[in-house]
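To fix ideas, we reproduce below a protein record of this kind.
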Amino acid sequence: MNVVLDFLASAWAVFVEMAPYLILGFVVAGVIRTFLPDDFVARRLGGGGSAPVLRAALLGIPLPLCSCGVIPAALGLRRQGASRGATLSFLVSTPETGVDSIAVTYGLLGPVMAVLRPIAALVNAIAAGWLSNALLPKETEAERPTETECAVCCGEKDGGHAHDHGPRERGRAALRFAFGDLLADVAPWLLLGLAIAAAIGTFAGPGEIGDLVSSEWAQMALMLAVSVPLYVCATASTPIAAALIFAGVSPGAALVLLLAGPATNAATILMVARFLGRGAAAVYLGSIAMTSLVVGFLVNRLHGVLAVVDPGKLHAEHGPVEQAVGVASAILLLALMARLVVVRLRSGSAVPPVGVADAAP
């Protein structure tokens, strides 16, 4: 019983810590999704060369799509003219980070990691796109998915694109997307991430994992091995990374988890192989692994110069006002999650699986 209570207390403490940043991130993500023109991304990703790869990486960073949700969006962009390199770059940068996960990273790990995480995702995405252009044969029009193939993969679903409405209607649409589709997409994995983080906090004391696996390369290899088969979204991976750092894992190894975990899973790898080719899938997986390890190594070197992770963020003690805001935000998020479940049950449909609620930007 004591173990169960410790587990629940640890999960609640992490949830309270990250809840205000989650709400802020969801709101910003909803605004981006609703106010971004429908063809904004597709118009900038066509053609060959390095420029579309860089634009795809930059445009994917703030978008609120997870690893599974980005698949239909990327295939839609591919059909509309995005190059193979740009498509791979978009597939990497979009799930690895977003405005919501950046906000949560700031709340749990501090400002330095909140800056390094999107920069690392950008490097990871550019590497995947450039390696694709350099190593794979030049693509042909016949290699691009047809509209029928995209429909089979993406499903018949109203994209929920913003029409020609005023700011008030768009604001309401932003909130509906943020605390409807996006929350439904993130919630199961967020709860899973909290459970894993709480388990680490309950059963692994400060520094214990670091004592068991002391080599930084062994730690990073372990994080990579766990990340590839395990699906966890960018937001949900953050409390896991925080718990691992508290348990002695290096910041670089934690960043490997933050990069590889959201970007790699069986569904994404199979879809890349199906629509972009086996060579593209090999480049996709290999570039993520290679770049994540290199970036993790560099972050560990940087950590020797400055505090990459804010120790006060891992188990911060807040004043009464901050604590009240955190508790209120956590209760609000739980209420919104419960509302989603009730709405789905009343409508006679299950809560949508991860990625289905996402709409192509």
Summary: The radius of gyration is 20 Å.
